[in-house]
Amino acid sequence: MKALTKTDFSLPGQVGVYHGKVRDVYNINDDLMVMVATDRISAFDVVLPKGIPFKGQVLNQIAAKFLDATADIVPNWKIATPDPMVTIGVKAEGFKVEMIIRGYLTGSAWREYKKGCRSLCGVALPEGMRENERFPEPIITPTTKAEEGHDENISKEEIIRQGLVSKADYEQMEGYTKALFKRGSEIAATKGLILVDTKYEFGKRDGKVILIDEIHTPDSSRYFYADGYEDKFLKGEPQRQLSKEFVRQWLISQGFMNEPGQQMPEITDDYAKSVSDRYIELYEHIVGEQFTPAPDEGDIAGRIERNITQWLTFRN
Questions:
Q1: Angle, alpha carbons 199-22-194 (nearest 5°)
Q2: What is the mean pLDDT of the segment spanning 256-263?
Q3: Can you tell me the mean pLDDT for 108-131?
Q4: Mean pLDDT score of the chain
Q5: I need a labelling partner for 79 at 20 to 30 A (CA). Which of 32, 35, 145, 204 fits?
Q6: Own/partner pairs for 158-161, CB < 8 Å, 24+ apart?
Q7: What is the rounded distance in angstroms from the CA atom of residue 64 to the CA atom of residue 124?
Q8: Rounded to an integer, what distance in angstroms lies between the CA atom of residue 275 and that of residue 255?
Q9: DSSP H or E run through 175
């Protein structure tokens, strides 16, 4: 099973490239962005040393479907998907904050709550909550978007005070975030899933706020199975979930949280395949159709570069 962990393309009109933790983004004539979803995987703000087969395809195809399914709520950057691992869209000036919205107390929010924290990003948390409990209303807990290292929690008031986002733009992003989460939750419910929490990224193009990046994928979201949720919650048992959290939990069990002195555990081929299987499982649940792997032509990067080049050439 092959995995794409690196790209080094030379595309028509290319004026720059950004290699992120898991995506490589090519700037075409300062007008278009070619986003390649690689098979790299990150956790605790570090890229794991082995790629996960089909992960990039899963993320790209889920995101493309949700961008299309929410285009009536907020304009987004997507134009085309010329390859199963690629989305091409308009270039926007991204805001330096990520909009995280949580419907349930779990993950990092629960870890903080368990330590006694009762305020997250300026949002007051009710007393007496339990792990995986639903909030009375979804809460928005933004983070700064770090170029390197850890993203940091930040309040709405601090975002506006620091001038990271204007008050008007932030409130528009806030409204979009709530509406997108509502739509995502409704779609998940039809597939027997609960959209627990997720993040959205926004940018500005021609003076308008638009949705950018991926949405509702297992890298940016957490899903529980609806069946059995209530029973497991009442018993205090871990929820069956489809998200990247299982990778984080495995790393924690191996003594790694990217803290000083800790060593990354070995990622075996068997473990990489098990992670791949989980990503495919989420795809099939949330999309509601069987996953079809992209054709194995022996050279994943070569296939992708050809498909992008053909699209860009044809468009011009």
A1: 35
A2: 93
A3: 95
A4: 94
A5: 145
A6: 158/122, 159/97
A7: 34
A8: 19
A9: helix 167-190
Average pLDDT over residues 80-102: 97
Write the CB contacts of 223 (distance below 8 Å, at least 6 apart in sequence): 188, 193, 194, 195, 196, 241, 242, 243, 282, 285, 286
pLDDT of 181-199, one tens digit each?
999 999 999 999 999 999 9
The Cα–Cα gap between 259 and 154 comes to 22
What residues are paired with 133 via a beta bridge?
Answer: 105
- 223-233 CB burial, b ≥16 within 10 A, e <16: bbbeeebeebb
Q: What is the pLDDT of residue 293?
A: 93
pLDDT (0 to 100) of residue 151: 76
Q: What is the pLDDT of residue 63?
A: 96
CB 41 within 8 A of CB 275: yes
Q: What type of residue sits at position 167?
A: K
Beta-strand relationship, 78-83 and 97-105: unpaired
Q: Which residues of 184-212 are buried (b: 16+ CB within 10 A; e: fewer)?
A: bbebbeeeebbbbbbbbbbbbeeeebbbb
Q: Which residues are CB-neighbours of 291 under 8 A, at least 6 positions away?
A: 54, 58, 280, 283, 284
Write phi, then psi, for 302 (nearest 5 degrees). Answer: -65, -40
pTM: 0.90
- Alpha-carbon span 151 to 170, nearest angstrom: 18
- For 279, the 3-state DSSP assignment is helix
Structure tokens of 128? 């007496």
What's the token pair of residue 150?
């850890």
Residues 231-251: tens digit of each pLDDT: 999 999 999 988 788 898 899
- 126, exposed or middle or buried, with CB in 10 Å at 0-12, 13-18, 19+? exposed
